[in-house]
Amino acid sequence: MRIYFDMEFTGLFKTAEVISIGCVDTEGKQFYGECTDFNKDVDPWITENVIGNLLFNDRPPFVSMADDNHNDYMVKGTTEEVGKELAKWLSFYDSVELYSDVHHYDMVLFVDLVTHGKSALDLPKNITADCWNLDQEIATVKNIPLAEAFDVTREDLAFMNIEDPAAKKHNSLWDAWVIKACFEELEKVPSTENKNLKTILCAGFPATGKSYFVGKSGLKVLDSDSSTFDKKDFPENYIKHIKDNIGKVDVILISTHKEVREALVKNNINFVLVYPKVGLKEEYIQRYKQRGSTEGFIKLLSANWNNWLKELHEQEGCEHIVLGPGEYISDIVDSHPSLKLPNIL
């Protein structure tokens, strides 16, 4: 059984003490423990954000379990008492694999808690003495440096609303649920090792040749038309669609709409933005006419040309490719490093 866990402790030093631990299994059964005997002389940030977000600050020590199936196992007591109850909860499982996030301190303190100060060699036989690390999983799946993975907002990755009244960031049980949701989201992305595809997301301005590229490139290209998505859930449904197809195709052609660009950046999804030089307005108006665009569409693009291209030029969090006269996406695929596909080209 997978156990997703998070721990809060008194600081990032080798004598750190446990403040709380939250655990969630694959089925959603949870354990939560708060320690009463840790050193309260801690950094003010920990006092406000960690101790302030404990669930049982106003309750005396207790142990409770919702039912005989070890649902909602809650405990408040000394570190030894919390460790004893945690070991009891974990004993219900035939086997345990641990999952956490940036877990260097968490894992050491977890072992200390469960073994009552002994070593990983003294863990119960059903618990694997190792831990899957969410930070490394993000870096691997998204093909980004570990430093960038560290900065990915976990709630965004998990589609969890930090503004939700139930959210308690830096509460170990809340964070354990976030870790679980993050791993599950990442597992929806097909492994590039298995698929052997490095998917490039290309946001192309109208008339940059997306449709031609789809038909003539010889690559696996997905043209994701944002106009077909329910606007009630937009752009979240569009971003989910993109995530679900990363690793399945070589290129995903996506919308350049501002709300899409902002959502991609918020979700730390790399993309390439392709648009023309601002001086090519007349050339592009001719392209719109030749492809049969409506008069209303042409007027809209013409009226907003300078402002929209200025917004694209100022867009942060992506790579930029600016097309010159007569250029289309298909013309620059072979030459631009941002669009290189090692397994195909």
Structure description:
The longest helix has 20 residues, at 295-314. α12 (281-290) crosses α13. The protein has two domains: 2-187, Nucleotidyltransferase, domain 5 (2-Layer Sandwich); 192-339, 3-Layer(aba) Sandwich (Rossmann fold), CATH 3.40.50. With 345 residues, the chain is an alpha/beta fold. Residues 191-196 and 341-345 have low confidence and may be disordered. It is elongated, with a radius of gyration of 25 Å. The chain is built from 14 helices and twelve strands. The chain has helices spanning 44-49, 79-90, 104-115, 134-142, 146-151, 154-157, 172-187, 192-195, 210-216, 236-245, 258-266, 281-290, 295-314, 329-332; strands spanning 2-9, 18-25, 30-35, 62-64, 73-77, 96-100, 127-133, 200-204, 221-223, 251-254, 272-276, 319-323. The strands form two sheets. A seven-stranded mixed beta sheet has the order 4-5-3-2-1-6-7. It has a five-stranded parallel beta sheet with strand order 9-10-8-11-12, sandwiched between helices. β2 and β3 (30-35) form a beta hairpin. It is 37% helix and 19% strand.
